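ok here's Apple domain-containing protein, seq below lol
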Amino acid sequence: MRRAVLSPAQSSSSSPTLPTYSSSSHSPSSPTSSYSPKLSTIAICILLLLNVLIWSNRLMTQRHHNANHHVEVHPTGYASVDASINALEERYEDVIQKAEDAISQSRIVRNWGDHSNKAVEHANEALGHHTKAEGIRDELLAQRSALPPPPPSPPSPPASSEPLLPAKLVKPSSWFNGGNTNTKHLAIGMAQGINDAQLCVFVASLRKFSPASESSIVLFMDEVSPKAQEILDKNAATAIVFNKREIKMGDMHPSTYRWPMITDYINDNQRSIDMVLLADVRDMAFQGDPFSIVTRPGLYVFNGVESMTIGQDGWNGGWVKDCFGNGVFQQLYDKKIICSGVSLGTIDSILSYLDLMASTMGTPSFAQCERNGVDQGVHNVLIHTDKLTGSIYKYDQMSGPVANMQAKVMSLTSDFRVVNNANGDVPIMHQYDRYETLMTHLFKLYVDWDIHAESSGEGDCKGYTIKENVEAFKGRCDLSHESGGTVEECCTICNNKGSCKGFTHIRSGCWLKSCGDVNPDQMLSVPGATGGWTG
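and the structure came out like this:
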């Protein structure tokens, strides 16, 4: 295994400097819930209606929120209201989250006959939060509409010919693949902040179908734990270690600054590469050789969610509109969403694609629309507007060789195979963490150490058994959902509820349980989740 450490060289003083930009926008990516209460027809109608109201309102606000960030480029007449608008946006997001939490509590009622009044109470609570959110939204719109038209914006500066990411970084000797000119396939991606178990699933499942004699694995990582080092060594993978604080545009999202880093590496090593897999590492696994998909020269891309078009989807449409304008947005309105998390191709086609991705995102003007996920907007514009040279092969989710699991088109069989509608196993499973049973299966298959550290609680958690990376109560004895940023807070909340005997803590929330008995055989492996119980 070759581990390289990336450090920055002195950059030219003439290099453009990007303004700091941040946004709360992100694409939803939480695993699909497997709660399945038997709800009455009336309850189902209530919940469906509330879902439509909440999510449609969120999409409207997302577009409004994105537009407001453009205020930063206008003169100070607009800056005077930015603080109040930002405060209102934070209030809006807070009440929307409360509404979603209330809906979640309705969903997890397992016995409708015994808990119908409670479920209706939660539904009414969600509706109240939604009504409050509408009022905040109207206040936002009123403040913005009261402003005079903005003065004309100054002409955009010419695009810099120099990439704004680590083109000028000092590259270690192993970066150049030892001068090897024997061509191999390459799997490459960003693995910043990755869980060791997720890293193991990616590299071990890939090595099962693509041995080191045929392919290289190169991952950009911000740190390498001892366990990660062991995993990389065992699977003949290379880590390129970097410090995001020392690279240009390091304040942007990893989904943005990964592209010039990947582009630089492949440009420098193109003589030793024949085809490339560009991969989202954190949530990708393999059940076949991914490089078998590439049968002729070109770029291979794969649909994401197919139930709506780019224009119909608030996230993808917002990325395109904010970065490329309304004209391009209208041009792509009826186009299919193509996922930027997985692409393959032969070396010439991949280089052409990467050069355009990196140069498009490596300009000062792009910083005004940059945020998590916006690279998928660039990806779709390049593909749907014929900016790329060479052949492009597009695959859908019905019969294609890559499963983007969030699309919920391909099937998961009882023996944990992911198959398309032709009943064929697909080589690549992307977004496998949307299915917790599949994720648990993959961890059991490839992770050869215990990731579920168990301990006795202390302080407010005294008397609890605490177990990491598990959902121990899925679908059982649900009591309520409360906000809680830490496991200790969940213990405190549970202690103050007489009927609470356990909880699951995940994503700043405590799912309280009325039972404390657990069955190890029924536990699900969920990275980032922690179970606690008193039984």
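fwiw The chain has a mean pLDDT of 77. kinda neat tbh
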